[in-house]
């Protein structure tokens, strides 16, 4: 089982660096989970890409319609929001990303991300073992 963040899910629908590695995770045989916050996060990212002309509104809407189906389960965010806030304050990093960290830790599974900033923030902390950068996760 792998916990996926929005940086990975966006790569499924956009042609970005490492998109093929991200897409391979979907077919890799692991059950995929994510906090429910992933849905509006990916929607917002696709909206930004649509405004820049990188994806049509129709393709973005189609991607969003199928996004929930990719996941074995979506984890409710409400019960972990306070813990995510406390972690965000400690790491000095956005709460959104900390929601993923807390969810992965609670489940005892790796959080796969393409977010190099998040990887840098957790490097050398107890959270480093929770995060699996895309280049590492795609070699599993």
Automatic annotation (TrEMBL):
<keyword id="KW-0460">Magnesium</keyword>
<dbReference type="InterPro" id="IPR051619">
    <property type="entry name" value="TypeII_TA_RNase_PINc/VapC"/>
</dbReference>
<comment type="similarity">
    <text>Belongs to the PINc/VapC protein family.</text>
</comment>
<keyword id="KW-0800">Toxin</keyword>
<keyword id="KW-0479">Metal-binding</keyword>
<feature type="binding site">
    <location>
        <position position="5"/>
    </location>
    <ligand>
        <name>Mg(2+)</name>
    </ligand>
</feature>
<dbReference type="InterPro" id="IPR044153">
    <property type="entry name" value="PIN_Pae0151-like"/>
</dbReference>
<keyword id="KW-0540">Nuclease</keyword>
<protein>
    <recommendedName>
        <fullName>Ribonuclease VapC</fullName>
        <ecNumber>3.1.-.-</ecNumber>
    </recommendedName>
</protein>
<comment type="function">
    <text>Toxic component of a toxin-antitoxin (TA) system. An RNase.</text>
</comment>
<dbReference type="GO" id="GO:0016787">
    <property type="term" value="F:hydrolase activity"/>
</dbReference>
<dbReference type="InterPro" id="IPR022907">
    <property type="entry name" value="VapC_family"/>
</dbReference>
<keyword id="KW-1277">Toxin-antitoxin system</keyword>
<dbReference type="InterPro" id="IPR002716">
    <property type="entry name" value="PIN_dom"/>
</dbReference>
<dbReference type="GO" id="GO:0090729">
    <property type="term" value="F:toxin activity"/>
</dbReference>
<dbReference type="GO" id="GO:0004540">
    <property type="term" value="F:RNA nuclease activity"/>
</dbReference>
<feature type="binding site">
    <location>
        <position position="97"/>
    </location>
    <ligand>
        <name>Mg(2+)</name>
    </ligand>
</feature>
<keyword id="KW-0378">Hydrolase</keyword>
<dbReference type="Pfam" id="PF01850">
    <property type="entry name" value="PIN"/>
</dbReference>
<feature type="domain" description="PIN">
    <location>
        <begin position="3"/>
        <end position="121"/>
    </location>
</feature>
<dbReference type="InterPro" id="IPR029060">
    <property type="entry name" value="PIN-like_dom_sf"/>
</dbReference>
<dbReference type="GO" id="GO:0000287">
    <property type="term" value="F:magnesium ion binding"/>
</dbReference>
């Amino acid at each position: 089982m792998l916990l996926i963040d929005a940086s990975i899910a966006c790569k499924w629908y956009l042609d970005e660096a490492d998109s093929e590695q991200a897409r391979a995770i979907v077919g890799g045989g692991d059950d995929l989970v994510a906090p429910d916050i992933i849905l509006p996060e990916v929607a917002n990212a696709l909206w930004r890409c649509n405004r820049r002309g990188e994806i049509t509104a129709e393709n973005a809407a189609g991607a969003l319609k199928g996004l929930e189906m990719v996941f074995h389960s979506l984890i409710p965010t409400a019960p972990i929001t306070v813990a995510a806030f406390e972690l965000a304050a400690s790491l000095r990093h956005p709460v959104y990303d900390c929601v993923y960290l807390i969810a992965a830790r609670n489940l005892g599974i790796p959080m796969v991300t393409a977010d190099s900033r998040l990887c840098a923030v957790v490097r050398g902390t107890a959270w480093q073992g929770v995060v699996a950068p895309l280049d590492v996760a795609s070699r599993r």
